[in-house]
């Protein structure tokens, strides 16, 4: 049975050695059986060793209620397994078949206006439907009983991207579940009233039955912030409860097979509380799709670092990424030469021990027919498939060299991410709609990278207070406990960076009184009386649209009006503005001595470039290492360490260094160790250096 918080990784097929898993979603039910042998031949050619099967196959497995057809699935799993390709078998519950929703339309979710989400796409089921749960668990039981002894099934793929389309449901099922959730969380209706501040606008309740989901309240009106925040928490929990029910049913029958489900962690994604979910899987899996443009590599590295944090630095699986273009953006940019391999190795560098794509063979029909795949419409005689083959060879080489089981090396710096702070800052009645929690951490990650520092991205529940330095970037919600952690961290010698919009409210979204940042004002030594949002002068002629700092950088979007400082504070930069703004000479960046540590406060949004310009002075004053001359921040350097029975940094442990070009121009760098991979790069062995082209990567071992 499943034990919360345990870790188990899919074991290799009998007789095989541990390898980096490589493959993707495989949908043989979209193709006639005569294609399957060709698929297996080409998978072997590409060194594929792991595929996820049956994710959207419910209608094929159970074509009519109670009638199960496993014959086709048995045949394809047997073909794969005999070819040495392990199967990650789906519970197949991601989308219900038409016969189910026809017989039980009450399982369909409703939007905030009460409109039904009809069948025609996917995830049109409501997470709180007891009827749908019964059908899903029956399928799980049938799948588990049939495949419990199959030697080729190495793991369970439970559901798929929970909440991608059915994150919020406003049905009566959801209403009753939300009421019960509130009762479990708060105990009494008076506690709910207190948490939500219902004395405002006469919203006080006398019974749990009066709690409604945040249904439509009219255009331009404002939902109670505490209620909305709790509904987002509830929605994450409701989907998690559904997943856990499926997981437990599968685990009860097949206790030897590890289980996972694919998260959707990205630079700005906050669909579910994935750190909370991370404790409910045997191993963490993630789907990531690139953001086109100059932030492509940085965004990938940032999100994968967060996945590594959610996994607590244990190996995780990249369940989906794309070989090239996706199909769901207004403009679906193709990947550039080198990016397929570079992106995969970036995920690997950040802790993934498996690299998979959506999907194996590109569809010729359906909504995703223009989504790229490992085997594209053009077939094996294509640049994409040649890159897929190249990547397979690289991963085999790195597997043989000992990468599996090593871990992402711990950085000196942790950047804290909090899903609940993001949810709270999404409310429509905030100081500015231009600032959310998630607008800030990525800027800090990129700014540190510009200074040659690859920071770790750590969930707020993680061990960020074990790092030499930590950043609380617009962490809007700080509970008593998290405020205490920050206070004790600095008191005992930690170096803490705090930004505007941090520590504004407690976990109920009730504002800390006494000035900002209310919960840790003593730690940073500053007190702000008012927010100073900045907009666009093009939108509002003459309105404040920026503030220049005395250190030469410019703030946009948001600033704090700091009016008082502790005696222990040094002011490092002030605003230089017209007197009419009231901001001239106001502190913008400060440094406070607190206990044995130091707390910097950045009271405005500086963006990546402003932070990169301001950080060297702060780092020097805080005694933190940085080397702005290391390729000028043009390379992203990542290390995986340990393995072979050794702890991180132990003598004899493996150490793999990944160097990625972050720019659009070639970068020359020194190279040490044995070169394992040089993609879009040339090595000069005599000079011990290399030229890394755009989209290039070098991997070395020592």
TrEMBL record:
Q: What is its EC number?
A: 3.2.1.23
**Beta-galactosidase trimerisation domain mapped to chain residues:** 412-624
Q: What family is this protein classified in?
A: Belongs to the glycosyl hydrolase 42 family.
Q: Which GO terms describe its cellular component?
A: beta-galactosidase complex
Its recorded name reads Beta-galactosidase
Quote the Pfam families the UniProt record gives.
Answer: Glyco_hydro_42, Glyco_hydro_42M
Top class in the EC scheme: hydrolase
Where do the catalytic residues lie? 161 (proton donor), 320 (nucleophile)
GO BP, one annotated term: carbohydrate metabolic process
The domain of life for this entry's organism is Bacteria
Q: Where is the signal peptide?
A: none
Tell me the GO molecular function terms: beta-galactosidase activity
Q: Which reaction does it catalyse?
A: Hydrolysis of terminal non-reducing beta-D-galactose residues in beta-D-galactosides
């Amino acid at each position: 049975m499943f034990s919360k918080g345990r870790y188990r990784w899919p074991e290799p097929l009998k007789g095989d050695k541990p390898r980096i898993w490589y493959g993707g979603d495989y949908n043989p039910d979209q193709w006639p059986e005569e294609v399957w042998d060709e698929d297996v031949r080409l998978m072997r050619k590409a060194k594929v060793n792991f595929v996820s099967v049956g994710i959207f196959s419910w209608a094929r497995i159970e074509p009519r209620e109670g009638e199960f057809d496993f014959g086709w699935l048995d045949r394809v799993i047997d073909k794969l397994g005999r070819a040495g390709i392990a199967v990650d078998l789906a519970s197949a519950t991601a989308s219900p078949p038409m016969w189910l929703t026809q017989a039980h339309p009450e399982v369909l979710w409703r939007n905030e206006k009460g409109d039904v989400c009809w069948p025609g796409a996917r995830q049109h089921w409501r997470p709180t439907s007891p009827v749908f749960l019964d059908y899903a668990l029956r399928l799980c039981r049938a799948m588990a009983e049939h495949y419990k002894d199959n030697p080729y099934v190495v793991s369970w793929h439970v559901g798929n991207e929970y909440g991608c389309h059915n994150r919020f449901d406003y049905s009566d099922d959801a209403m009753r579940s939300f009421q019960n959730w509130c009762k479990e969380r708060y105990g009494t209706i008076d506690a709910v009233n207190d948490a939500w501040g219902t004395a405002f606008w006469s919203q006080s309740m006398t019974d749990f039955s009066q709690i409604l989901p945040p249904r439509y309240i009219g255009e331009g009106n404002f939902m109670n912030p505490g209620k909305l925040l709790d509904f987002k928490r509830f929605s994450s929990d409701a989907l998690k409860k559904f997943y856990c029910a499926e997981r437990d049913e599968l685990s009860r029958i097949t206790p030897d097979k590890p289980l996972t489900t694919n998260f959707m962690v990205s630079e700005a994604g906050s669909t579910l509380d994935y750190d909370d979910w991370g404790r409910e899987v045997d191993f963490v899996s993630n789907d990531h799709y690139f953001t086109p443009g100059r932030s492509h590599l940085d965004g990938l590295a940032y999100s994968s670092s967060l996945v590594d944090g959610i996994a607590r630095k244990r190996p995780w699986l990249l369940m989906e990424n794309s070989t090239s273009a996706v199909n769901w953006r207004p403009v679906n940019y193709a990947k550039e030469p080198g990016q397929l391999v570079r992106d995969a190795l970036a995920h690997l560098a950040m802790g993934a021990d498996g690299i998979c794509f959506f999907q194996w063979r590109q569809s010729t029909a359906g909504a995703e027919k223009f989504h790229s795949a490992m085997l594209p419409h053009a077939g094996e005689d294509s640049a994409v498939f040649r890159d897929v083959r190249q990547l397979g060879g690289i991963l085999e080489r790195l597997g043989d060299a000992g990468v599996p089981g090593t871990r992402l090396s711990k950085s000196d710096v942790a950047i804290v991410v909090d899903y609940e702070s993001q949810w709270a800052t999404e409310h429509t009645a905030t100081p500015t709609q231009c600032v959310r929690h998630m607008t800030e951490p990525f800027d800090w990650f990129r700014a540190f990278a510009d200074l040659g520092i690859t920071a770790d991205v750590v969930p707020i529940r993680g061990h960020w207070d074990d790092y030499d330095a930590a950043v609380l970037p617009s962490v809007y919600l700080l509970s008593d406990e998290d405020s205490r952690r920050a206070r004790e961290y600095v008191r005992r010698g930690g170096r803490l960076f705090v930004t505007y919009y941090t520590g504004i409210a407690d976990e109920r979204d009730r504002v800390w009184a006494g000035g900002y940042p209310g919960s840790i004002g003593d730690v940073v030594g500053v007190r702000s009386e008012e927010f100073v949002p900045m907009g666009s002068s093009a939108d509002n002629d003459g309105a404040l649209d920026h503030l220049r700092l005395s250190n030469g950088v410019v703030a946009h979007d948001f600033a704090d009006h700091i009016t008082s400082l502790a005696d222990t504070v040094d002011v490092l930069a002030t605003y230089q503005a017209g007197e009419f703004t009231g901001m001239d000479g106001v502190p913008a960046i400060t440094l406070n001595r607190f206990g044995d540590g130091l707390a910097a406060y950045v009271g405005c949004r500086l963006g990546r470039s402003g932070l990169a310009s301001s950080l060297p002075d702060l780092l020097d004053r805080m005694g933190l290492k940085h080397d702005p001359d290391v390729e000028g921040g043009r390379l992203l350097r990542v290390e995986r360490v340990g393995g072979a029975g050794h702890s991180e940094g132990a003598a004899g442990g493996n150490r793999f260094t990944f160097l990625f070009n972050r720019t659009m121009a070639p970068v020359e760098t020194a190279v040490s160790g044995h070169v394992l991979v040089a993609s879009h790069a040339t090595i000069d062995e005599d000079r011990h250096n290399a030229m890394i082209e755009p989209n290039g990567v070098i991997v070395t071992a020592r």
